[in-house]
Amino acid sequence: MDSPEVTKTASTPSAATETAAAASSIGSPIVQESPFSNYLSNLSPIKPVKNSRILPGYADLSSPPLVFTSPHIVSKCEASSLQRPQCPQKSGPETPKDNVGISSVDVPPGLEKCDSYLSSKFNVDSEKDGDHSSYTKEQHCSPSGVVDEYLSEPVDTECTDCVHSANPITETEPSIGPRGLANLQTIVLNADTDKEAPTFALPTSGQGSSNCVLSSDGLLYETLSVQNLHANEDYYDHVEAGLDDPGVSQLYRGMSRRCLQFEEAQGIGQGSVPAMNSPNSSSDPMGLRLPFSSAGMENSKILNPGIAAPSGKRTMINLTRGLISNRSPNHNSNARLSIPKRSGIGLHLNSIVKALPMECNVNESMKTHLSENEKCSTQLSNSVEKITHAEEKMLENQVVPAVVSATSDSLLTMKSVSALQSLEPNETPPKKRTLSLEQCENYNELNQSSPKKRRKKFTPDGDGCKRCNCKKTKCLKLYCDCFAAGIYCADSCSCQGCFNRPEHEDKVLETRQLIESRNPLAFAPKIVHQASGVPAVIGEEVNRTTPASARHKRGCNCKRSMCLKKYCECYQSNVGCSSGCRCEGCKNVFGRREDYTIVEEIMSSTTSKDGPNDIADEKLAGVDHSNDLFHADSSELESPAPFTPQCQFSEHGNDAPKSGPFSTRYLPSPLSHMSTIQSDSKTSSPTQTGDSLLAEIDCRDMEFTIAEMIGELSPKLDPISGICYLSPQRTASSSAVAASPSASKTKDLSTNVPRPQFEVGSGGTHMSSSIRWHGLPVTPMPSLGAGKMIDDVLMEEEDTTPEILKEACNPIQSVKATSPNKKRISPPHAHSKRLELGSIVSGGLKSGRKFILKAVPSFPPLTPCLDSKATKLPPTRKSNSQQQGK
DNA sequence: GAGTTTGAAACT
DNA sequence: CAGTTTCAAACTC
């Protein structure tokens, strides 16, 4: 906890060792254990972990549903984010050599859910550049399946053992593609597999050791050996360089801020990191400002005692020091600083990126390696490039639905780097360490709050740095962007009576804990990256900047801004709205809610038999069919109704209330149905972010599933099949709606955006329509429909993403786990059970995925989902009523 | 720069 | 859990 001490540790080699020891506690095998070191480790905020294992804390963290419920798989997709021009990419100089091998890990289907699987290795030869960069992809499915866990899981860097071995780019699991699951990419830098060369393995995968741990916070903790540090440093350097580049978006800077205080360290930024930064920080390129670990201080403590500890400043400072120390010759080669990348809430994303660098193991080699760092950096960049290319291919070929949780973000950062390169090779081919757009975005958010150094929100301010202007909250509430971001307010802030300063660290921490106690996710990064190989949601086309994958965890609740103004958190973050949003009349340029998009389709296609609601109309109007999803399938879209049939079940009875309208096979206005669906999706999505994430992750899958479901199912309304199929959906939708406790859901339902429901009976659903759905990349829909579908019916891909998916998918669980958002986790992949529709599986599915509806006993008993639905139904009514009331 | 609007956060 | 209030940012003028 004691940050100051941490600094000590960092500074001294011994400290490094100590830190390593601490890390060992985490799970680093290598860590030296000496009482002293242990002591130090305890003191030092920074825990040296060679191999960060999943911290127990993590498990805990993960466990909490609210925390990252849905692990988003880090998707390469983010690579899509690459788009973000903003993110400065480091280019060239760094690119070069690739001693470091980066491996992208494919996330196994399960992983997708879990998402956090990133295994990456960083093996860098301090002495020599890692000549060998092995580039391997591993897919880990976190067996645990719980995304949260994944998230929470710290990454062990050391585990070279882990999957990645020398094999240069290898994908352990090609499977990703088929499922469309996002592949988690992990960059492995293997210069040479040093003994200590850390590797990231996702523990969750069950494969075993993972070096990287994802914290519930979504932070990726990595333990790096000194060598790694070098690599990281290089990485950061590159990043910084990128920042320096005019081209680099402020966002990027912002990211850097939080993650690293490059400015100070390198002076890239302004370097002034007022309160937060310790004097030392200036020198530290790595200096992080992590006043808080978002998710958990706890986690951080666990994972990174040092970081977590005390005050953000200290931690920041400590980290920086640690880095410095690393560089300093003094560092013991052995000693490692494992700086867990804390994902403080705000930091998450940043943390990822930073984490890598942060996690430097301080080795003497580090010293020597400092020079090497450059090499490493170049190597890394090279490796990254490689990776990115590979990933690009992967992505292109495969849709990676995986959603990246906040933690994933970190992972993403890793990936993103590669992805970015891969994705935007053209744009910034050289920059290897470029961050993905998503990352950037995330950073932005995070940065926004980041106080001094770079809060870089992308604000109109030239800097993009934002500063708070709190007057009454003393900057101790989430109203304060700085506080919310887990950073101290900067001098530049205009806040009054600010307590969010290092001097009030205690108070800040206390407050923070209180808030977290109420809402564990309060400080979690708001934006989750979904793996998006796929163009995410409808809006994505529009999304220029944001990777489709990125989504706001909680979603927005905009009523009047149409999600076209910064009032909208989604929009502000440059991310599209998702099923988790309860916005009305969403026109988010970065991606409208699935529901809306769906609605649009419906509207367009059907031309609204029933006059869509005004809102709906507006939405429709707003939505251009050209947009994304529909575009793709424009022809299909036109087709009358993409309606999915709803099954009318006994469950309906449950649903009935809601469904009242729903009950009708076709809702008078499809839109209304749609709305319901959306709501469902939203509602259904377990509030837990993780879940939601999962749901999102699977969006495509969902699409497919839905399409399949619809197409196949609808036609097959057979009592049996039909029931099964439908029941789940309907129930899901209806139930979901009803179930969705969140008022927001109700809002959604009631209102403005009516969403079409799928009714089986209506028969309206045409195979084609279903197909369309398939085609539709729309995340929302898929999520909705899919989510519902999934929930209700267990749809599994043939591939199986087993447990994780199941878990995630577990409708009940997901549903039960009510995350604040109540997002439903769509187990798109959930494979576990399929009711085979027999032929149902539509070969036509884009993905080629086959979902078998495992017996969804259509009825209540079946899947928890169904049950949940039934149970939930009542609520939906309420919600509806409420909405109506509104 | 002041005032209004907006939606999240906090409170009840 | 839902509704209301408070808050600060975003926006408008």
UniProtKB/TrEMBL annotation:
* Polar residues composition bias: residue spans: 672-690, 877-886
Q: SMART domains per the record? A: CXC
Does the record carry Nucleus as a key word?
A: yes
Q: What is its main location?
A: nucleus
Protein name, entry field: CRC domain-containing protein
Organism in which the protein naturally occurs: Linum tenue
Please report the stretch or stretches of sequence annotated as the CRC domain: 464-591
Q: Where is there biased composition of kind Basic and acidic residues?
A: 124-140
User: Record's superkingdom?
Assistant: Eukaryota
Keywords of the record: Nucleus
